[in-house]
Amino acid sequence: MIEFDRLIINHDVKSMRSDFSLIKVFKTLTAFSVLTTVIGCSQTQENHDVQAQVDYPAYLFASFRGNGEDGLHLAYSRNGLNWTALNNDESVLPPAVGTKLMRDPTLIRGVDGFHMVWTSGWQDDGIGVAHSQDLVNWSDQQFVPVMQDYPSARNAWAPEIIWDNDAQNYLIFWATTLPGTYPDTEAKADKGWDHRIYATRTADFKAYSDTELYYQPDFNVIDATITPVDNGYVMLVKDETRYPAAKRLHAAFSDSISGPWSLNSKAFSPDGLWVEGPTILPLTLNGVQGYMVYFDAYMNHQFGAMFTKDFKTWEDKTSSLNLPAGTRHGSVLGVAEAELQQLIDAYGDNTTHFTPAQLQEVCTGEPLSCQLSTSSGNYGVAITTSSKFSSVYAESRRLMYAPEVTEQSAPVLHLAVNVRDAEGQPIQDIDEPNVDGLNVILTQSLSEISGIDVTKKAHTRSLFIIGDSTVADQTRQWLKPAEQRYSGWGQILPAWFGPTITVVNYADSGEGTEAFSVPDGVLWQQMAGQIQPNDWVLIQLGHNDKKNPRDVYVSRMNGLLETIIGKGAHPVLISPMIRNHGIELTEQHTYGDLVLRNELPKIARQNDVPYIDLMSVTNDWAIKLGQKNAQTFFVEKDKTHTNQPGALTFAGFVIEEIKRQQLPLTHYLRATAKQGTGQ
């Protein structure tokens, strides 16, 4: 064993909160000692996995945001799929050692408390280490120079830690590049970053064993993580080969934590998706015992999840996963109820819980309109029922869930709802009164609702919609039958999407490219500051550009697309749906020298953005049905505006095109989302 000559301990970061008295310290440590005895975390246990001792009631996800500058982020879950951020998704522990980053945090329950290791910098020769007894109060951070004896080492990335019960110490392992060591694979690496897995061991986090090569699979490998299973151990790794690109996850198996490892050469992560940072959670899902593997689909800026019983057969759960937006490579562990409550007491979960009795006070009318908050913003809503869900709306009759769109088998329905004042259309005067804050509309008896949880979201991935009255959130019109309610397809679209993306509809009646022109358009000014990198923007403009010459329309559209792309967001151009006049496609939306069906594909190609030709799709649909039958999907004699069944049909066409073109937006659809309902 050696003691590193550059073991750096940061004394500037307080290990306890300023109001944490010695009495409270004693009580916390005493309570933790009792708790660890109860849940099986004593050093005398024989099982080789501390984490697997208990069927934990909750789970904790440790991760980072951005480049890791602000530190550790925490979220919790009770089912491993739907996660709630703690501390309003702000950092709970800032980095203080190395280059002062806190990337790839691995947080584990050890035999003597909780321990965390992390990447402290892109080119540091060491890693960060810290400890806690309660996940709230942390020790001074250490910088452990694990690669100090390898002067050519370029880095020490994504460290992981696991307790080895046989050796009675902790195994810490990470990825490092030693230039020139493996020339064959280095030639296939990105700028010479050719990694192998190295490791050290420690029993007390003071003395560490000599760093040694731990895993060499004859390819560029990073992001190893290990979990015990009944017959040994499983290690997941990423093949980081760049030329030709691999970027996939593999499973390896061993009887011993020290290896040797038998690699399954067939990757288990989704085809065509570059991923990294796997982390493993043992859990029971729908009565089945197994493991949830989370991974960072970093090219799509989204997390994914796959469930397995044996690390050989896999079930993709990505569409059911709901993590805070911006979550990056991290780790997950089970926590006891007392531990979770201590975290919530310390940081808050920003969630309001409505019991059946409380819902009686805030839900009124027919259908039931529940005012669950009085402020604007983005919300996560979880509705629990004792029966099957009927349709659920929000705000101005925005369809959030419908049985004909997606089946909901679980007793909890999770929604992502955008709230703004005024609700509905952003700038139009409406006949119906505006109701401040978050309003959720239920179409079933309140006696069937067991509770509703509402969480204000600080950071969300958003799907913005730009358009006109055929897309807009129209008024409630509850007294009218669905066939007589004016409805925009953007008003219905949220029903297909899961809670990992929030639909924000800025479509407005009578508006065209002028209202969304950059930089002075009245609607563009309202939404421009909200668009963040990796958001999506659907754009249908043209119905109300009849008086604009071609050059003006094209210039405005190009400016809008260029600005959205410049923000790092992803626009999708959509041609306007038809007017049901029974005319040829060549006559639809032709205004002087502005022929939309000709110009829009050109604009999309010039800006390299996806294009959905809704005009042609709806024209083919109308021809198939005949003008008379197609008119039943419009409001009475109106040839332009759809009723609710029509909006449902046209929104379905948009979803079908998103799927057909395999746009990354498909990752945000609900798992059981059906095809559109066009006839």
From TrEMBL:
Keywords on record: Glycosidase, Hydrolase
Keyword Hydrolase attached: yes
GO biological process: carbohydrate metabolic process
Gene3D superfamilies membership: Glycosyl hydrolase domain, family 43, SGNH hydrolase
Ranges where the SGNH hydrolase-type esterase domain occurs: 466-625
Pfam families documented for this protein: Glyco_hydro_43, Lipase_GDSL_2
GO MF entry, a single one: hydrolase activity, acting on ester bonds
Family of this protein: Belongs to the 'GDSL' lipolytic enzyme family.
Protein name, entry field: SGNH hydrolase-type esterase domain-containing protein
